Amino acid sequence: MIVLNCPYCGQDRHEEELTYGGEAEIIRPLEPEEASDELWTEYLYFRTNPKGTHHEQWCCSGGCGQWFKVARDTVSHDILEVVTFDKRLSA
Amino acid sequence: MSGYRLKSGGRIDRSKPLNFTFDGRAMQGFAGDTLSSAILANGVGTIGRSFKYHRPRGIYAAGIEDPNAMLEVVDGHGREPGLRAGQVHLVEGLQARSVTGWPSPQFDLVSAATRLMSPFMTAGFYYKTLKWPNWSWYEEAVRKAAGFGAPDGTVDGRQREYRHASCDVLVIGAGPAGLAAVSSLKGSGRDVVLVDHASSAGGALRWEAAQIDGSEGMIWADKVVADCQADGGQVLLNTFVTGAYEGNYFTLIESLVDHRGLKAERIWKLRAREIIMATGAVDRPLVYQNNDRPGTFLSTSVRQFISEYGVAPGKRLAIFTNNDSGYLTALQAAAAGMATPVVIDTRSAPSAAHVEAAREKGIEVFVQSQVADVVGGRGLRAVRVVDQAGKIRTVSCDAIALTGGATPMIHLAAHRGAKPIYDEASASFVCATLPKGWHGAGAATGSRELADVLAQGHAAGQAIVATVNSAPVANVALGMGDVVPMWQAKTGSAKKMFVDLQNDVKASDVQLAAQENYISAEHLKRYSTLGMGTDQGRTSNINGLAIMAAATGREVAKVGTTTFRPPYTATRMGAIAHHRQNDGFAPRRRMPAHSDHASNGAQFEDFGWQRPDWYTKNGSDREAAVGIEMTAVRTGVGVFDASPLGKVEVVGPDARVFINKFYVSNLATLKPGRIRYSVMCHDDGIIFDDGVVACVDDNFFLAGPTSGNAETVGAWFERWRQTEWPDMAVAIAPVTSNWAAIALAGPKARDLLARLSPDFDISGEGFAHMHFREGTIGGVPARAARVSFTGELQYEIAVPARYGQALMQAALSEGADLGAVPVGMEAWLRLRLEKGYLHLGADTNGRTTPLDIGMGGVVMKKAADFIGKRALSLPYNASEGREELVGLKPVDAPIKIGGRILADGYAQIPCPSIGNVTSACDSPLAGNIAMALIEGGSKRMGEKVKIYAEGKITEAEVCSPVFVDPQNERLHA
Hints:
The structure holds two protein chains of two kinds. By secondary structure, chain A is mainly beta. Helix content of chain A is 10%, strand content 34%. Chain A contains one helix and six strands; from the N terminus they run βββαβββ. In chain A, a hairpin with a 7-residue loop joins β4 and β5 (67-73). The longest helix of chain A is centred in the middle third of the chain and has 9 residues, at 37-45. The radius of gyration of chain A is 14 Å and the shape is globular. Chain A starts with a strand and ends in a 7-residue tail after the last strand. In chain B, the strands form 14 sheets. In chain B, strands 9, 10, 13, 14, 15, 16 and 30 form a seven-stranded mixed sheet that branches. In chain B, strands 43-44-45-42-36-46 form a six-stranded mixed sheet. In chain B, α8 (325-335) packs parallel to α9. Among the domains of chain B are: 4-111, Roll (Ubiquitin-like (UB roll)), CATH 3.10.20.440; 159-281 and 408-472, FAD/NAD(P)-binding domain, CATH 3.50.50.60; 594-644 and 738-826, Gyrase A, domain 2, CATH 3.30.1360.120; 648-734, 2-Layer Sandwich (Alpha-Beta Plaits); 875-973, Elongation Factor Tu (Ef-tu), domain 3, CATH 2.40.30. The termini of chain B are far apart. The A-B interface holds A 1-3, 14, 21, 28, 32-33, 35, 37, 40-41, 44-45, 57, 59, 61, 65-67, 77, 85-86 and B 164, 245-247, 249, 271, 683-684, 715, 718-719, 722-724, 726, 865, 869-871, 874-875.
């Protein structure tokens, strides 16, 4: 059971109040038509799936509705960092 | 064996006798009894038969650690097929039955047969023997002979609820350690939850003789609990902590018992900042020949039976021990007035004080002695005691109490991954490191003496927050002493020494596993079934591991333990799932005009909303009603409740640029008051929704996703707005349930709309197909769209939800003379199939792109990027021969939905398939029609294909999916 403190509304939110959105900091190429098939496939499908620190997108869906970013340890489930979506994770 | 009720003593209420039955025999107990203590007090010896060998077994322990006492229990609220007798509160009228042994546990036929077989039923017996020709040949018979009762298929009357909570400190266990922690936190302002599985706090103080802070132990305990409650703390009794999870999140099951039995259960989902693990320990039995006979008990349980319940487990007790605590049992038995017991101590130099105290009471003590065997089958009559010199004496007794040390209850920490390590001092597995925020205290950490237990509990509390409270002081005459391990008796046959009583695993099975190289703890468990029972090996694991250690010449520490997993003890499925039955399974969403649908005989189906499938008002059976509803739409007018249809407002200066990024059609040119149909993709190019988009004005677009995706699409827009285009000046408002909507469809739809008093022009020219109007209808605000899912002249009118019912009533009453009828989902979906309009999720699947449904031209015309566009030119999506949506007409027999299309050149299955039928129905206008996704479908017009469905192969012709009005004359009427 994961609990995250939403960086927008400041509330502790339990897993049931949150929506997971996959890996964070996936860049959608700005010029899709210029992107090679390989680059676009990479963007669409390839994820890191690390054992350890994982950058994730979460939404405070049962609360303020904002998406934010989380660095989580996939082994210990420790939450290392939570930032608003406009920031980059440093953990 | 002959247990009986002592004349005095115990915490039971002797003024409240309770009648109950066991295996049909009338018995009596008292308020405060458990089913175990009550059965024992009535002199019952054999309560069941063992799992594999059908040996007679009796009550063995007072709590959930009892591997034998699984009984069927019927109380005033329901029946349970298998409960541990020690956790059942006795109530008036309770009926308990053995669930093992046939025809009765006293006279068991299977036992006679298995006695002959037992030499062959060793570890791995099932794997080695019952595999020819396969397990299913044996399964039924084996399951009948084994198992612990069966559900009878009825729903019990118990209530259940979930509760979510959080606290600063969760104290698990209200024994002396937990209570010392609670008393240490007194006045700290910390929000404390104290949990114990028993019906009163105190833990071992309920039966041990001890003084704390100058008062009798239980008086101290009651005071700590009262102080805790006065401090705002919550005390949950009759409550098991069943699991510990990440983030210090716990599941608890609280039993609420009334005079008729278990009335209700409450599942707590509790999160705590700090945890005191004061979960205690249970006695470990000793392993010797025939150590499973009825009349065999754990030593601490005997003290509990005597002092908590006033029950003597037998007339004369023998105590077999390797530590000082056995003497406490002997002294309690003597003090209770039982015949003078005898102590058999494995040690050479027991504590002089204990021996002295025992001998003072006339208790005979055999040192450096072991039990070699017992006399008596269904009831113990004597034990054979062997001393160091090998001399055997027979000592008569009808009950034996065992203590081989204690096994700390470390399960919850282990659920969190804390690793158990072997502690030589206590000869037990303890957790050296606990999860973050956890503090161990008491017997759960291997401590044995009350003074240590209290000091640890106090220290745990102080570690959370320093207070002025001082540590409780213990005054105990005689302690528990150190344990000198004795893992297996030196005399006797290992084939009759039981390690795991629930699963009938013997010392010889563990040794066989070692011989066959199943030497790791995890392999041993699965090969021999050691510790796999519902008692989770509480009494058996450590002995088994130690015997494995001896058999492989290793230290116990090197063998390690198996992994504990939730739940901590057997949990009723009802507690977890009961409230998710029937209406509790999921909320029913009802449309504003629900009661009008019901009074028209709507046959509701759950589409996320309760929607009418068809109306009995229109016909007595489904086909007849659906036919009438379809005909009304084609010839007169039908009224369809479209309220669940998605409505998402996209508002702001960037609304047009924003929404144009989602749909595959070009919305850059959509003029105010106009509507366009389109589909939406994920970025991988796969269609995930379709619907119409209205341009209300340049800053305001109204998207109409499908009912099923109404919430999803709003959330999808919002996610992209936040994460990809945060600078766009646009706001998203999902307003689906704010508006009720009805659709009027059919050649007379305009006449009907006119009667509903719109304040805007509804003429064919003034309000043409794919136009949108805002205004009022019958004086209430309305949004009207002229769109069509049926191929007929059709209006969809949305009004604020509170007017939805009135609008439905008005449409049906004003349209009565026009032949207006309510139309259900089935007719609606068949009407759209006649027109070849796709039904998202039926005619599309997880691979379908806009190109596959004939929207390639639309996509090509759109220059701007949209979500999914780039993926459409990836090689796989752009390849030839993809499944494309086409129509089908039958050649020889009606087409079945779900039928597989046979690959070219095949007339029979098995063969490759090139697609499947996605929709099919009988149409009053077009006969049997269907749509299908077929590889290269658009290039197959006129081809015949073979379809396999329901065991038959039929033939159909590929055609355009538009079966009715291909010129759209009706649509534009």
